[in-house]
Specification:
Elements lengths: L1 H28 L9 H8 L3 H10 L11 E6 L1 H10 L10 H11 E3 L10 E3 L2 E3 L5 E3 L7 E7 L2 E9 L23 E6 H6 L4 H5 L10 E3 L2 E10 L2 E6 L9 H7 L4 H12 E5 L1 H11 L5 E6 L25 E6 L1 H12 L11 H9 L2 E2 L26 E7 L2 E6 L6 H4 L3 H4 L5 H10 L1 H4 L6 E5 L2 H6 L2 E4 L4 E5 L5 E2 L1 H13 L2 E3 L12 E7 L4 E8 L2 E3 L1 H6 L3 E10 L2 E6 L10 H11 L4 H8 L4 E2 L4 E2 L8 E6 L1 H9 L12 H13 L1 E3 L13 E7 L5 E9 L2 E5 L5 E3 L7 E3 L2 E6 L8
Parallel strand pairs: 1-11, 7-13, 14-17, 18-27, 30-37
Antiparallel strand pairs: 1-2, 3-4, 5-8, 6-7, 8-9, 9-10, 10-11, 12-13, 14-15, 16-17, 18-22, 19-20, 20-21, 23-24, 24-25, 25-26, 26-27, 28-29, 30-31, 32-33, 33-34, 34-35, 36-37
Pfam families: Fasciclin
InterPro entries: Adhesion/Biosynth-related, FAS1_dom_sf, FAS1_domain
């Protein structure tokens, strides 16, 4: 009996111990009394969301929002839902279809919890970037839709999904579709912190929503009535608007016929393909239980971005929080006549326009950034052009799920199609010149702030002169006059030099009357001068043309762009391979007034007779050779600066001759009496006892080029509009000599 009593007491004791431990366990791990309720319950506690709670129930999200998670919910209050019901002719919430309720709820639901202290910040890979966020990824995505499209010329009804990348290779996989990325749509808001950090104004947002009232926190055309309602599984921001999922840029274009020409005749015809995706097909089967071949609508990688890509660039996982895309698309009544009158000036149909040119055209309308109205003049497209519109030019403005859409009443005034460049890019007969320009000098000639004259050489002219381009091999070649063939590298280098002589900066339209006047001008631009050319009554010469006695002539009439004019020519402006010695000998033969200076040069140790070069003067570099005339040479002899005998064997005399010649050779510069005041002094080949280069001062007025030597004496060139030219060399007769002694 005692054993039973003892056993009983031990059992009672054990039960008490276990009971105490369970109470302690429950007390430690139980839900804290001060913890807020889950989102759905929290909405009920707030008391202003009865309609929206019913929408949550119809959408099947009640359990999701009453469980663990980490959400931001932009919850419309009862007044907002009531207005929505009236606007869509629903008598009660019960009439809202479940599918619509699901759209509303999922589009209001943002991944991760963001209170107002972080809602305007960007979650970068390196941490928070303050004031850089104005968008967030939602739980809503479209999925797949049936669409009638042409595949390999045959119209078919297929299941279509959207690309979720900008058609760039992702981890060596499919470049346009990444499995597991549902292409979730974004919501856009406008917080005061974001506005201030980005120097925006309230007008930037009200431009899209003119009737909106002032607020520090706007959301999708409405305002946040109460922020930071904390719940167990996230945060709630009460909003005064119900928002259905916004379309993407691609979807907005599809829905609006006023942009149908751009959409159908340009974008879809040339830059959209439908690619079968086994991965997307499996996803479709998983979601619907149906087996089907799914095709992804793919935009060409030549475009700045894919308008159906709901993500941003994906350079970082969350970069869609800080930026989106922008499109400025003209309406049909604007784009159709422009295409006909401008774009197709030299083409019969768009099918004949090179795809690269078409892509350039489309990219004038695409911005890889969200362009607020106050940023039209600062943010640039792929061609580095601002949006050349005023607010009055915008007739349709939409904040869509992946950016901003602007419908316009004019074409973007692109430098490609408004400057002199338009006459090259839009004419198939000049496609080879276009290729050369795009390789090196495109940025130069499309600058609307600088005036240019272009001499346009055609494909047929290049072919006639022995130049050819192999598209398959992407290689140039040239057969010269003697039948020698030059390979790709040498030919491309030669053509690059030739091209630069056909581009001339003419700020005062200096070549306007080229058929009736005479003169000379330096090619290229002022920052990087090219070679001099000259003209006389319609005959134009570079150094090579002069030697060959084959001038360039204008054919047809000039055409214009907003930064200058173009002339069509019947020949190339050729450069010369003449050495400095050959050039000086030629000029001395043409002009006996400089024959004595040439005699000193030809008999000096500086002249290498076998190669006909002057020591120190490198072929292909810029020089100005100053040739004192016979009277000036005699004066130098009389002054004791030169010995009387050009072939003297005297050491001092030889030194005098070499120093005299070197001091009349200006390096790294072509100088002519064109009024260019940028050159104030020039370095010569002469040096002092400390091996420092000697200089001469330059005074350049139109028709009056003067030099000041080390003694302060001024010497002028003998002016002639018929400039002496050679291989990147300009030669002048001087009416005096420059003294290298000080």
């Amino acid at each position: 009996m005692r054993i039973y009593k003892l056993t009983f007491h031990w059992v009672v004791f054990a039960v008490l111990c276990i009971s105490c431990r369970k109470e302690a366990f429950d007390d430690y791990y139980s839900r804290p009394d001060d913890l807020e309720s889950p989102i759905y319950t929290r909405l009920e506690e707030e008391g202003r969301f009865s309609h929206f709670r019913r929408l949550i129930e119809k959408a099947g999200y009640m359990q999701t929002l009453n469980q663990a998670g980490y959400w931001t919910l932009f919850a419309p209050n009862d007044d907002a839902v009531h207005r929505f019901l009236q606007e869509h002719n629903y008598a009660t919430v019960e009439e809202v279809p479940d599918a619509v309720a699901e759209q509303i709820v999922r589009y209001a639901l943002v991944y991760n919890a963001f209170q107002t202290n972080r809602i305007a910040d960007y979650q970068s890979n390196l941490g928070w970037q303050e004031g850089m966020g104005f968008r967030r990824r939602t739980a809503y995505y479209d999925g797949f839709r049936k669409e009638k499209v042409k595949i390999n010329g045959t119209e078919r009804e297929i299941i279509v999904g959207a690309s979720n990348r900008n058609n760039v290779t992702v981890n060596f996989g499919t470049p346009y579709y990444v499995d597991g990325d549902n292409n979730n749509k974004y919501v856009t808001y406008f917080h005061e912190k974001y506005r201030q950090f980005n120097s925006l104004s309230a007008d930037d947002y009200s431009f899209f929503h003119p009737s909106i009232s002032t607020s520090n926190f706007h959301f999708m055309g409405g305002s946040v009535a109460k922020a930071d309602i904390i719940a167990e599984n996230g945060v709630i921001h009460e909003v005064d608007v119900v928002t259905l999922p916004r379309p993407s840029l691609d979807q907005y274009l599809r829905e609006n016929e006023e942009y149908s020409f751009f959409r159908d005749s340009v974008l879809n015809q040339f830059f959209v393909t439908y690619e079968y995706s086994p991965t997307a097909s499996k996803t479709y089967e998983y979601r619907t239980g149906q087996v089907a071949e799914v095709y992804i609508k793919v935009y060409d990688p030549l475009l700045a971005f894919s308008p159906n890509n709901e993500n941003f660039l994906k350079e970082e996982d969350n970069d869609g929080q800080r930026d989106g895309y922008s499109m400025f698309i003209p309406t049909n009544d604007v784009i159709v006549p422009w295409i006909r009158n401008v774009f197709l000036e030299h083409y019969k149909t768009l099918n004949r326009v090179p795809k690269g040119v078409l892509a350039d055209f489309v990219n004038t309308m695409l911005w890889q950034s969200a362009v607020w109205p106050s940023q039209f003049s600062t943010k640039t497209n792929l061609h580095e052009e601002p949006a050349r519109f005023t607010k009055a030019d915008i007739i349709d403005k939409q904040i869509v799920s992946n950016g901003f859409f602007y419908g316009t009443n004019k074409i973007q005034e692109s430098d490609l199609f408004n400057t002199v460049y338009r006459h090259v890019i839009l004419d198939p007969e000049y496609s080879l010149m276009l290729m050369l320009l795009e390789r090196e000098h495109k940025r130069l000639v499309i600058n609307p702030g600088t005036k240019f004259t272009l001499f346009l050489f055609s494909n047929s002219l290049l072919n006639r002169l022995g130049y050819s381009y192999n598209e398959r091999l992407n290689e140039w070649s040239w057969i010269d006059r003697n039948g020698n063939t030059m390979g790709h590298g040498q030919t491309q280098t030669r053509l690059a030099r030739l091209l630069y002589s056909h581009i001339i900066e003419t700020p005062n339209d200096e070549l306007a009357n080229i058929n009736n006047t005479q003169g000379f001008i330096q090619t290229g631009d002022r920052a990087l001068p090219g070679e001099f050319i000259k003209w006389k009554n319609g005959n134009i010469y570079a150094a090579g043309n002069e030697r060959l006695q084959e001038p360039v002539r204008i054919i047809g009439t000039a055409k214009f762009g907003n930064n200058g004019r173009v002339y069509y020519v019947d020949n190339l402006l050729e450069f010369s391979n003449e050495t400095a010695g050959e050039a000086m000998a030629r000029i001395a033969a043409e002009n006996p007034n400089v024959s004595r200076f040439w005699e000193y040069v030809s008999k000096s140790p500086l002249y290498v007779a076998n190669d006909r070069v002057i020591t120190g003067v490198a072929g292909g570099s810029l020089y100005t050779l100053l040739m004192p005339n016979n009277e000036a040479v005699q004066q130098a002899i009389d002054d004791g600066v030169l010995p009387p005998d050009p072939a003297t064997g005297d050491i001092v005399g030889k030194f005098q001759i070499e120093s005299f010649i070197r001091y009349h050779i200006l390096t790294n510069v072509n100088v002519a009496p064109d009024g260019n005041q940028d050159i104030l002094s020039a370095v010569t080949l002469a040096k002092n006892v400390d091996d420092e280069s000697l200089t001469v001062n330059v005074s350049n007025a139109v028709g009056n080029l003067r030099f000041v030597d080390r003694k302060g004496r001024t010497v002028s060139t003998v002016y002639t509009p018929d400039l002496y030219l050679s291989d990147r060399i300009v030669l002048h007769e001087l009416n005096g000599y420059l003294n290298y002694n000080n």
